[in-house]
Amino acid sequence: MSERRLTDHLDYMRQAAADACCFVEGLSKKDFLGDKRTQQAVIMSLVIIGEAATRVMDGHRGVCRCAQGNTVAQHARHAQAHC
């Protein structure tokens, strides 16, 4: 995976996470659970994050293989240090 593609995928992930946060901003848990449209929007953002993460992992198998079994935070620190 090229450096540009990696940056694109990470940007998609950041944007999807920001979108999900905006969708639920100001909502109580009760309101969120009662709003199917917002739930679906958040789910779609999580799908986008998952798909982009899969592409990053597939494109950087050599780097990511050494991080198997780590927490998400450990993966993120590892990726920042090595990608």
Quick summary:
With 83 residues, this protein is mainly α.
Question: How would you explain this protein's 3D organization?
Answer:
By secondary structure, the protein is an all-alpha fold. The protein has one domain. The chain is built from 5 helices and no strands. The chain has helices spanning 3-24, 29-33, 36-59, 61-65, 72-82. Helix 1 (3-24) packs antiparallel against helix 3 (36-59). The chain is elongated and about 40 Å long. The protein starts with a helix and ends with a helix. The relative contact order is 0.14. The model has no long low-confidence stretch (mean pLDDT 83).
Q: What's the structural blueprint in terms of helices and strands?
A:
Blueprint: H1 3-24, H2 29-33, H3 36-59, H4 61-65, H5 72-82
Helix pairs in contact: 1-3
Entry keywords:
83 residues; mainly alpha; 5 helices; elongated
Strand content: under 5%
Gyration radius, rounded = 15 Å
Indicate how many domains the architecture comprises: 1
Q: What does the average pLDDT come to?
A: 83
Helix percent band: over 70%
Low-confidence stretches: none
Q: How far from one another are the termini?
A: 11 Å
Shape: elongated
Q: How many helix segments?
A: 5
Number of strands: 0
| Largest sheet report | none
Q: Which series of helices and strands comes N to C? A: HHHHH
Alpha-beta classification: mainly alpha
Oligomer category: single chain
